[in-house]
Design a protein that fits this description.
Organism: Horticoccus luteus
InterPro entries: UCP028477
Number of helices: 10
Mean pLDDT: 86
Helix content: 25-40%
Protein name: DUF2145 domain-containing protein
Keywords: Signal
Radius of gyration: 18 Å
Order of helices and strands: HHHHEEEEHEHHHHEEHE
Number of domains: 1
Pfam family, one: DUF2145
Shape: globular
C-alpha cells in the first residue's frame, strides 16, 4: 500500500432470524427498494437527493463512495451501519431529447439478477434512486483523494469494472476469497484496482488479503446455518474464524489508514 502514497425457543428464533435477515436481504441492496419514499415521503426524498448532490458539488467531488442503511440500524449486526454501498460520479448525462447536462450518477451492484437472491448485477442510476432505498435518515460519504478519484473513475470507465464483478451473490461475502460478491466487496475491488492500477484479479485479491481488515459478523444460532434458511447467505467462503465481510466502515478505514481519504462525512435528511 505504501507504494501508492507511501431465552427464546427454536420457533421464535426462526421467526426472528427470518424477520431480521430475509426481508432486508432483498431490499437493502435492491434497485426496487423504496423504503425511504414509504417512510419519509417522495418530496422529502427528492429534496434530500438534491441536498446530497449539492454537498458533493460544493466540495467539487468527481467520485465518492456513498452508503445508505436499507434497514433500521437496530436490526443490523454489530459493526454494520449501512447495507448498500456504491460509487457516485459527477458526469454528463444525455436527456431523451439529446441534450446533455452534468449531474451525479450512481454505480451500483444490486442483488436480485433474474429474480434470484443469490445473483447480482451492475446498474447505473441516480442519487434519488439511491436515497429512495434508505431506512435511516442519513447517508455516509467517503471522498477519496483527488488522485484516487481519477484512478477510480478510470477503472469505472474500463472493462475491468464489469470484469471484476462476480455474479454469485453472498450477503456476507468474505472479501479475502474470490468466490462471491456484494456491493461493498465489488467497491473494494475497484478501489484496489485503482490504487495499484491493475486489472489482475489474483493480484487484487492478494492485496486485499494483505492490507484489508474485514468486519467480523456474529449471527444467532439459526442465522448461522446460512442458505438452509436464507438463500442470500452462504458459508462456502466463510473464514475459519467465522463470518467476516466488507462494510462501508471497514472500507473507509482501509482508505483512511493509507492516506487515501480527502474527507468523510454524513448528510442528514433534516
Amino acid at each position: 500500500m505504501k507504494s501508492f502514497l507511501t431465552s427464546l425457543r427454536w420457533p421464535a428464533l426462526l421467526l426472528a432470524g427470518l424477520a431480521l435477515w430475509h426481508n432486508p436481504v432483498v431490499a437493502g441492496g435492491s434497485a426496487a427498494s423504496k423504503f425511504g419514499v414509504e417512510k419519509f415521503g417522495d418530496e422529502a426524498i427528492r429534496n434530500f437527493a438534491l441536498k446530497v448532490n449539492d454537498e458533493l458539488d460544493a466540495r467539487k467531488v468527481s467520485v465518492a463512495i456513498i452508503a445508505r442503511a436499507g434497514r433500521p440500524r437496530a436490526e443490523m449486526p454489530k459493526g454494520i451501519n449501512y447495507t448498500h454501498v456504491a460509487f457516485i460520479v459527477f458526469e454528463p448525462v444525455r436527456r431523451p431529447d439529446g441534450s446533455v447536462f452534468n449531474t451525479y450518477t450512481v454505480y451500483n451492484l444490486y442483488q436480485g439478477a433474474d429474480g434470484r437472491d443469490d445473483r447480482s448485477y451492475l446498474k447505473q442510476d441516480y442519487t434519488y434512486d439511491f436515497v429512495a432505498g434508505m431506512m435511516e435518515p442519513d447517508v455516509a460519504i467517503c471522498v477519496p483523494t483527488p488522485a484516487l478519484q481519477r484512478r477510480i473513475l478510470a477503472v469505472i470507465r474500463s472493462p475491468a469494472y464489469a470484469a471484476l464483478h462476480t455474479p454469485k451473490y453472498n450477503l456476507l461475502t468474505n472479501p479475502w476469497v474470490d468466490k462471491f460478491d456484494n456491493c461493498v466487496t465489488h467497491s473494494l475491488k475497484i478501489c484496489v484496482a485503482a490504487i495499484y492500477q491493475t486489472d489482475d484479479r489474483a493480484r487484487i485479491y492478494q492485496d486485499i488479503r494483505t492490507y484489508f481488515r474485514p468486519t467480523p459478523v456474529r449471527l444467532g444460532p439459526l442465522q448461522s446455518f446460512g442458505s438452509t434458511f436464507m438463500s442470500a447467505i452462504s458459508r462456502e467462503d466463510m473464514d475459519p474464524a467465522g463470518f467476516q465481510t466488507a462494510t462501508y466502515d471497514s472500507l473507509e478505514a482501509f482508505l483512511a489508514e493509507n492516506g487515501l481519504v480527502q474527507e468523510a462525512f454524513t448528510v442528514a435528511l433534516n
